[in-house]
Amino acid sequence: MATTPVRSPSNQQTSRMRKDESFLGKLGGTLGRKKKAKEVSDLQEEGKNAINAPLSPIPTDIIHPEDTLLDENEERTMIEQYSKEEAKYKELVKVLIDWINDVLVEERIIVKSLEEDLYDGQVLQKLLEKLAGRKLNVAEVTQSEIGQKQKLQTVLESVNNLLRPQGWAIKWSIDSIHAKKTVAILHLLVALAMHFRAPVRLPEHVSVQMVVVRKREGILQTSHVTEEFTSTTEMMMGRFERDAFDTLFDHAPDKLSVVKKSLITFVNKHLNKLNLEVTELETQFADGVYLVLLMGLLEDYFVPLYNFYLTPESFEQKVHNVLFSFELMQDGGIKKPKARPEDVVNLDLKSTLRVLYNLFTKYKNVE
Fold first, then answer.
1. What's CA 243's distance to the chain center, in Å?
2. Contact 233, 202 (CB under 8 A)
């Protein structure tokens, strides 16, 4: 039986097979070398991380290369990225930006980024001037770093002089603001908003997680801390417990007019001796002048005019007057009022009533 002869591959097919084998071999060798190179690279990276961060790993999504270039014993802090994504943090940033833009609307200034727009002191200068009602002696426009820091120094000195006597912790500096440190800028703005009684509601209990990177003996070490920006509204406003006036405003507003009438009668009984008369508690005590004069009348002494501003013009001068009246009250044996001077200046009726009621309680029988 005849068999079909087996045909040997043609020279062309043989040549193609050899080329394919050669290509696959080269491809396999290339892939193998790349895989080996990647393994070596990964191993080197793992070794470098093990040397640089033996205490705790540093997430690469929050550490920038420049943040690891530290001198010996130098320290840097960064906000954890997930903290920036939290709703309360975003709300705080938005509320502060909207507040600044509302205050500076007449200046045609629009803030979009707290870090990028506030670091050079220009916007902070305008904001403080508007809030405090006075001009600062600084150059209007400064491009150089030295000029910007000089402006920041002037602005922050004015801010600190306002806030430090009221017990505010100063958690910012010229360098931290100019370096666009978010934490320092937020602390500064929250303090200003609370001090000047901004007509906004700051979200409560806003905090962020911070990564602290230190270099010790050539090794980078990390730790984590919590940075708090706001607590409860009442604690931030200096009112730590509710009193009769909270209850009055919340549950018995119909009796408010009776209380106001009694207090107006009381203060006029004494202010009439100077031919002065009060008809509006909300506004006529806001500059502190009547409070100072009233204390002199109640305690039967003359208050030297150089101790207070008889015709205050700025917010700062009005706060000085109210604060001075508080000191006179304490000298007279009255506990320091729960109200903040800034609240009285900002026409907060509840704060003004608290102050006057303290006087009424002690001096109601004084002729």
1. 28
2. yes
* Confidence (pLDDT) at 126: 92
Least confident piece of the model among 27-36, 199-208, 214-223? 27-36
- Least confidently predicted of 152-156, 247-251, 303-307, 323-327: 247-251
| N- to C-terminal Cα separation, the chain | 146
Provide the 10 A C-beta neighbour count for residue 174.
19
Q: Give Cα separations from 155 to 49, 102, 119, 152, 160 (angstroms).
A: 43, 20, 12, 5, 9
Alpha carbon distance 88, 83 (integer Å): 9
CB neighbour list of residue 246: distance below 8 Å, 6 or more residues apart: 350
- Distance in angstroms (rounded) separating the CA atoms of residues 209 and 82: 9
Q: Is 211 helix (H, G, I), strand (E, B) or coil?
A: strand
Q: How far apart are CA 174 and CA 155, in angstroms?
A: 9
C-alpha–C-alpha distance, residues 118 and 88, integer Å: 21
Classified as helix, coil or strand, 78 is strand
Tokens for 204, please give them. 């409560």
